[in-house]
Write a structure and sequence with these properties.
With about 250 residues, the chain is α+β, with helices and mostly antiparallel strands. The protein has 2 domains: about 140 residues, no CATH class; about 100 residues, no CATH class. The protein contains 7 helices and 10 strands. The strands form 3 sheets. Strands 1, 2, 3, 4, 5 and 6 form a 6-stranded antiparallel β-sheet that branches. Strand 3 and strand 4 form a beta hairpin. Helix 5 runs parallel beside helix 6 and helix 6 runs antiparallel to helix 7. The protein is flat.
Length: about 250
């Protein structure tokens, strides 16, 4: 997959608002070091720079997949979060990319566990994470197997969908939380916890459900719109937050 690296990833200069102690951790260098360790580049997402001065320094998220451990179902990955304007420290997250939907499942804080300030030496600490990466992936895969072996009732699916909806909206704002559990492809057909988890995760992030929108008009009255499709999540921080909080909900059931 050929991906053009945006300026925020290749940036080596210091932003005008940071101190002299700030060390620029170049994301491109991290990508190259991971390529030498058996990873390949999957995708890059960057936030929109609201200020002209932040253009090329903004927060970005890089997905890299570990091809040596890929399976018929998908491939383990690393998610790199970084910025060059103090909006984010360098963070690594263990994840899994499922072929059926290309969605990214991200592990919780008990699996991921590395964040660096830009004043620290990233090379040594990143090596600590990478040395333990295979162990982290094995834990994640064991969790997936536990989910697959757990058959859940329609009532449990409904409960999980209702809890998942509330990670984004109030329950009353959603027409039918069970929309999150609809089967949209053959690979997602099943009554085990893992397939339900994948159905809900995709619907939650892609906005595959209907909700109402509320706002206060100029007269101070609360206006409730008709139900419409929920929006797809595109913000990097929100993508990771929803992934990790949903996984925590699912693991409580597993």
């Amino acid at each position: 997959m050929s991906i053009i690296l945006p300026e925020s990833v290749t940036q080596t200069e210091r932003h005008q608002d940071v101190s002299d102690r700030y060390e620029s951790v170049n994301t491109e260098y991290i990508i190259k070091s991971l390529l030498n360790r058996g990873f390949s580049l999957h995708n890059i997402q960057e936030t929109r720079a609201r200020k002209v001065s932040n253009q090329g320094f903004q927060k970005h998220m890089v997905w890299m997949q570990f091809d040596e451990m890929k399976t018929a179902e998908g491939v383990p990955s690393i998610v790199i979060m970084n910025s060059h304007n103090r909006s984010s420290s360098l963070k690594f997250h263990t994840g899994f990319i499922r072929w059926a939907c290309s969605n990214l499942l991200v592990g919780g804080s008990d699996i991921t566990s590395l964040s660096l300030r830009h004043s620290e030496n990233w090379t040594d600490k990143a090596s600590v994470f990478l040395d333990g990466y295979i162990e982290n992936v094995e834990v994640m895969m064991q969790e997936h197997e536990r989910m697959k072996s757990k058959c859940i009732s329609r009532y449990q699916m409904m409960q999980l969908a209702e809890q998942a909806v509330q990670l984004r909206y109030k329950l009353d704002d959603v027409l039918d939380p069970n929309e999150l559990n609809l089967i949209r492809r053959e690979e997602d057909r099943g009554s085990d916890l893992y397939t339900s988890y994948n159905r809900i995760q995709e619907a939650l992030l892609q906005g595959h459900f209907k909700r109402k929108v509320q706002h206060v008009n100029d007269e101070g009255n609360l206006i409730v719109s008709p139900y419409s499709n929920a929006k797809r999540i595109t913000a990097t921080d929100e993508t990771l937050r929803l992934n990790k909080e949903l996984r925590a909900l699912v693991l409580e059931v597993a």
